[in-house]
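I hope you will forgive my troubling you with a question about protein structure. Could you please explain, in whatever detail you think fit, how the structure tokens follow from the sequence? Thank you for your consideration; the sequence and its tokens are set out here.
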Amino acid sequence: MKKDIQNRDDLMQLVTLFYEKLLADKDMVPIFIDVAKIDLDEHLPVLVDFWDSILFFTATYKRNAMTPHLILHDKYPLTQLHFDKWLAFFNQSVDELFAGEKAQLAKDRAKSIAMLMQMKTENMNLAK
């Protein structure tokens, strides 16, 4: 039986697998590599802070998660396909590694985040 997400090491394992999936997808690579130009050594610990704050209420993440994504959308429009793949890869990553209350909470929160971000990007499109 798989264990639940318990700590920052588990979160690092999760976001590492998640980004392996994202960066292996032809539709997602341009967003993360060509436009956002992420450096995984810098980005993954930030994601761990983000999920640590969400799942364990640690307040280790002190940034605004939405702003960089809206800036990214302005440079490279994010579509329904991108949001669907992002969420599918996240859920697959959680399910491959973990099971339990925190694992389900992570998937629920990821769905809420994707829906909110998609709504905000659609509003940006309407404002243009």
User: Anything to note?
Assistant: The chain has a mean pLDDT of 93.
